[in-house]
Amino acid sequence: MLKTRNSCTGTIAYRCWLLIIMALLVSLPATLPAAVLAHDASNDGAYDDAFPQWDDGDNGGFGFTAWTLSPFPGTANAGFFTGDAGQNGTGGSSGGAINATDGDAWGLYANGGGLAVAYRGFDFNSDATLDALPVGGAFYILMDNGWNDANVGFVLRSGNDTGNKNGGQRLEFRHTAGGNYLINDNSGDVDTGVGWTADGLSLVLTLTGTDAYSMSITPIGGMTTVIQGNLGGSGAINSFALYNENAGSGQNYDLFFNNVSVQDDASSSAVPEPGVIVLLIGGLLLAVHGRRSRPPISVVAALRGS
Q1: CB atoms within 10 A of CB 29
Q2: How much is the mean pLDDT over the chain?
Q3: Which segments of the chain are extended strands (E)?
Q4: Is it true that the peptide bond before 52 is cis, omega within 30 degrees of 0?
Q5: DSSP E strand stretches across 28-77
Q6: What would the pLDDT profile of 189-204 be if each residue is shown by its tens digit?
Q7: Higher pLDDT, 138 or 7
Q8: Mean pLDDT value of segment 272-284
C-alpha cells in the first residue's frame, strides 16, 4: 500500500518551513505602490458636454477642488477647450502624445495680450479644504506647448488664489519665447537646459523636504533631466495654476495639459529593511525549531515549579 503524509510534518518539517519562508520573502516587492491621492484627465465624463467641454466649475477625477477658469466664458483673446494636442506647433508634429484615450487634452489659448489661467486646489479628503502635498509625495502632469511668443506653463502654490496665478507661488515651470524651459524657485530662474519642443513633456515634481524639491523633465521620446533645488515663498503646496500668457494667435500656439495626479510617499510603504528580514527569519526558524524540540509537559511543569 502506498503511504502518504503531510509534506510539512514529521522529520522534514524544518526544511519545509524554511523553504516556505524563503519563498514568501523572495515574492515581496521592493516597495509597495504609492497611494494616488488625486487624479484627473481630459477623458473624464465631466468634460463630455457641449463645446468647449472644459468649463468653469467642472470637477472631474478625484482629490481636487473644481476648476476655476479665468476668463470664463472665453473671449477672442483667451479661453479654454478640449482638443487634439497634436495640432499645435507645426500642425500635427507632436502627434498628440499627451492626448487621453478619447484623443484630446485640456487646451488654453491666449493672444492679443490675453491671459488664460486654470486654477485648482488639492482636496484629497473631499471636504472642501485644501490638503498639502506631503514630503516625499509627487505632483505629475503632462504638458504640450506649441509655438510661443510669450510665456506658458504652470505654478505650484500655497493657497488657491484664483485672482493671481503667482499668488502663493512656491515653484513655477514655464517656457519663455526663444529660450529653454525654466524653473523659478527661491534662487530665481533656473535654466533646465531642456530646449523647446512641440512633442510634449512629462513632468514630475517630488517634494524631498519641507522646502526642497526634485523635478524630472522628460520630453516625449527623449531623455530625462532632473533639477533639484529649494522652493520659493512659504507654506504648503496645495494648489496649482495652468496658464497661457499671450502665446499667440491660432492653433499652432495652443497650450495643452493632461493626466494630472498627486501621489503620496512610496517609501513610507516600503517593506522591512534587510536586517529586519533577517530577524524575522531567525524568529520564525526558532519558533519552528522550538516546536520540534519542545520538552514533555511534565518537564515544563517541573521547570515552572508546579
Answers
A1: 9
A2: 83
A3: 36-40, 68-70, 78-83, 105-110, 115-121, 138-145, 151-157, 169-176, 181-185, 188-191, 201-207, 212-219, 225-230, 239-245, 255-263
A4: yes
A5: 36-40, 68-70
A6: 999 999 999 999 999 9
A7: 138
A8: 42
Across-strand partners of 205? Answer: 139, 215
Instruction: Supply the DSSP string of 160-182, one letter for each residue.
Output: --TT-TTTTEEEEEEEETTS-EE
CATH code linked to domain 39-268: 2.60.120.560
Phi-psi region of 304 (alpha: psi -120 to 50; beta: other; left: phi over 0): alpha
Can you say whether the dihedral through the CA atoms of 197, 198, 199, 205 is positive or negative? positive
Residue 6 above 90 pLDDT? no
Annotated domain spans of the chain? 39-268
Joined grid coordinates for residue 251: 492653433
**How far is Cα 20 from Cα 12, in angstroms, rounded to an integer?**
12
Q: Specify the pLDDT at position 95.
A: 62
Q: Are 118 and 80 in contact (CB under 8 A)?
A: yes
